[in-house]
Here is the input.
Amino acid sequence: MNESSSGRADAAGPPPRVRVTAPRPGGGAASARPSLPHGGGPTSDIAGVYVRSLIRSQLRLAVVFAIGFAVATALFVLAIALVPALDSSFVFGVPASWLLLGAGVYPLALTVAGLYVRAAARNEARYRSLTEAE
Amino acid sequence: MNPVIGYVAIAAVALASALIGFYGLRVSRTTSDFYVASRTVRPWWNASAIGGEYLSAASFLGIAGLILLQGSGGLWFPIGYTAGYLMLLLFVAAPLRRSGAYTIPDFTEARLESTSARRVTSTLVIVIGWFYIVPQLQGAALTVRITTGLPSWVGSVAVAVLVAVIVAAGGMRSITFVQAFQFWLKLTAIAVPVVALLLIVGGGEPPAQLTPAEAFPPAAGPGDLDVYRTVSLMVALLLGTLGLPHVLVRFYTNPDGVAARRTTVIVLALLSVFYLFPTAFGLLGRAFAPDLAAPGEADALILLLPGRLVPGIWGELLTALVIAGAFGAFLSTSSGLVVSLAGVISQDLLGGSVRGFRIAAVASSLIPLLVALTTESAGLAGSVGLVFAFTASTLCPILILGIWWRGLTARGAVAGMLTGGVLSGVAILGGPVLSAALPALRPFLEQPAAWTVPVAVLVTVLVSRGDHRGVPRGTDAFLTRLHVPEARR
Here is the structure.
């Protein structure tokens, strides 16, 4: 099955097969991991500043999108609840209010997800360009 | 109902799952193959597998039953189940993949450099997994009883044994393909009957048993919203998804953090499509089968409606299809949970060997079976909702704070997990007794997440702040690994 899925791989080719091992007490988890841009390693000051600002901007992004989704959903539900005409207008024998609540939140969640992925990748690209410019 | 349809459908799904499982066995050789499929799984495969694993008895049978029983209150369950993946995408997906750990206990230990935090996390993961498997086995009992007339216990035993055998034989590499298959099976098994029923009902024959105004009264509609219960349910479902052990383990099989995000978005899309169908079933049930609206019986709506509305052989074929889908749901969720539980148990107790994994797989199937055989189902969607509330109060705060807050310490994490676990555990298990004594507390005990999650987070933060030992030495390096994008190849 692995062979067949690599067979129809795109131009980039299948990701290389990496051996991974369980972390042992005392040692960190082992995996192929990104190396820091500087020879100074993780403790190097300027690298630390870049990383902290990356974490801050990613957290801000996630919180803004989460709150945005919650507020949009709440407004949507409030709108449905406040228009009683939706309860009495039937589409295929089902009140419009039920159909809206039953199907309306999914497109909203998908939109938020799509926008977030692009924004998060932009933050990472900015981090890359900062660290690679050194 | 003709029992032959039930036997044939159940046997076909069991056989197909076992065949794919054993086919996978041939390419599953090393320990890392067993645990996380050597991290070569592509986003579409992975997303299908996550969907296959996630869509449980609660999704396949429970949602329609709840809409039939409660009205539009039931519509919130699929919304929460889906939007949980949005929260997972925003807060967890990419960093967790980059952490390089196999399981949530591995993550806790690597982040907090503490074996006691690891032990508490492992215990919680095992408890959550067991309580999540129980409703699957109860769903299997219901399906077997309704469709074949055999005693209920046969269904629970059959699923538990099958899952133990498949997981112990193949590990996760094969399970990924089984699960991906299961998603498309479940989608087909619910979409085809819904489309067929809508076409038939649209022709006006048979007529609905209730008029639209009777079937969808405004008192059960979206306008009549219990704000506290809805908000609390949403907190439980949105945040509970983050901590589900069988969901998280699958993120480790993505090649990198960016692929983990892409996988999550695909999952969100797959679930959004899937959940339209049980919703449609529930709405059809309100108009065409109002007599099924009784606790314990409503969950059988999806199994019974095709046979009622479509006469003859076509009705029987549609019934066979939904039985196959339902059985697929029990099998896939239980096996996903057993894989992740076996991973945790074998690493913590049995040395992380392939043999230990197999022993642990058998043990994690049999213990929930004992619980399922000795308890009664109180509604599938409801019991799974309570597991989400427990997960949201225990593992979710540790994951989110561990990924985003530098100040988290092992003591804070342990205190927070214990607080959240005790509060939500007492509310869930002691709820019926306590709310009989203090009726005013009933909604807070039946939907505890809205207060247990904030309390757990608060305790975690306060104890971490007061921890004189300070944050673990490797914190900065670990956070760097979580958030810095992988080197470009």
Notes: Residues 152-202 of chain B form the longest helix (51 residues). Residues 95 and 459 of chain B are 24 Å apart (CA to CA). The two ends of chain B are 58 Å apart (CA to CA). Confidence is low (pLDDT under 50) at residues 33-38 of chain B.
